[in-house]
């Protein structure tokens, strides 16, 4: 029998706690989830939670980061099907907004997330998204696709538009009905950056 290293055991504990917390937070929400909900289901103690994440909020932050990172990766996969960087940027933003229809994303990331963790724009996962958007804007500007614009301002506004559209869709009374309206508005706002908007909308 191969003995696992301490690092491997710690990683396994973290993985189990994250999986347990993700299921509990999705089902009950942050406030209604107890410490026992997070540990008993996977046969771990509160001490394991404290050691790995500090407290319930720390574990919740790790779950939000995990899901939000997955959302970004899925959005990038959608973007990869496009023929050019501009269409890819729009597809990525619209895909992120679309995920606001998913129950797990709605409850954990877009509803409880801001309430528990504060401004989503300050989350590590959102900062990684901003880095990617900044790189895309830099390239599009260099290629002459965009009008002269401050790169940082454009990147932050594009990222913020997609994020806030997703937050709106997740919390409105009719998410499915609002989704196409939010996506259309996001596209139109983004197209204001184009150097030549004629023929760009497809």
UniProtKB/TrEMBL annotation:
Q: What InterPro entries does UniProt report for this protein, alphabetically?
A: Homeodomain-like_sf (IPR009057), HTH-type_TetR-like_transc_reg (IPR050109), HTH_TetR (IPR001647), Rv0078-like_C (IPR049484)
HTH tetR-type domain location is 11-71
Q: What is this protein called?
A: TetR/AcrR family transcriptional regulator
Signal sequence span is none
Q: This protein's superkingdom?
A: Bacteria
KW DNA-binding (keyword) present: yes
Pfam family for this entry, one = TetR_N
Q: Which residues bind DNA?
A: 34-53
User: Keyword annotations for this protein?
Assistant: DNA-binding
């Amino acid at each position: 029998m191969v003995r696992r290293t301490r690092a491997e055991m710690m990683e396994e504990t973290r993985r189990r706690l994250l999986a347990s917390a993700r299921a509990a937070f999705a089902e009950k929400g942050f406030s209604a989830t107890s410490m026992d909900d997070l540990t008993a289901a996977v046969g771990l103690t509160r001490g394991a939670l404290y050691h790995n994440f500090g407290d319930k909020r720390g574990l919740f932050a790790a779950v939000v980061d995990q899901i939000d990172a997955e959302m970004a990766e899925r959005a990038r996969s959608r973007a990869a099907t496009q023929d050019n960087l501009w269409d890819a940027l729009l597809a990525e933003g619209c895909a992120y907004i679309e995920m606001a229809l998913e129950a797990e994303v709605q409850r954990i990331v877009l509803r409880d997330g801001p309430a528990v963790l504060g401004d989503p724009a300050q989350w590590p996962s959102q900062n990684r998204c901003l880095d990617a958007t900044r790189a895309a804007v830099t390239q599009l500007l260099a290629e002459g696709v965009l009008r002269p614009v401050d790169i940082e301002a454009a990147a932050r506004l594009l990222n913020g538009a997609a994020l806030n559209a997703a937050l709106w869709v997740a919390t409105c009374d009719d998410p499915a009905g609002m989704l196409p309206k939010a996506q259309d508005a996001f596209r139109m706002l983004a197209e204001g950056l184009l150097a030549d908007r004629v023929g760009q909308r497809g």
